[in-house]
Amino acid sequence: MRGFTEVALGFPTALFSFALLVVIGYWGLVLLGGPGVDALDGGEGVDTHGGALAGLGLGGVPVTVAGSLLIAVAWFVSLAGSVLTTGPAARTAVLAAALASAWAGTRAVLRPIARRLPRERAASRSDFVGRLCVVRTGRVGPDFGQAEVTAEDGSSAVVQVRSLTEEPGLTVGRTALIFDYDPDAECYLVAAFDPGALGD
User: Which pTM was predicted?
Assistant: First the structure.
């Protein structure tokens, strides 16, 4: 046990030992239903398909999963390498081998998992087409106008809108219907809409 502790707290294993303790504590909280539980389902606040690790080819899964596996593999390889080698030069080589093995091993494990996880559809500007919006400028015409629209997830955005003609009903506070998107002008096309007509 004493030998294990010396290796675990020696170079280069110590670089990963403390990180591994954090990982173990984190997943312990997850198992107990703590604040990290969102990591299991890619919930809010968890970068599921991107982030810093995506640039290393480790995207497609929650970053907490990729990071935890990366640290665990690096720790194991550095521990095993430190037991089998002696000397500063050899230990430096062990560090390099641990980092390379952690990347390769984590990538090999995560690739089949990432293929099975559902992909989040990227937001598209056409998502607002067919939705109602509220005019936020004094008027909306063929050359000017802004409106506030609420997305399906409940978030709102102020977008550039235009009308095909000068409609008197498109003034501040009035409701309009987004019926198309103009990619050249980068704006939405709207028409006056009476919400009361839905009840008739």
Answer: 0.53
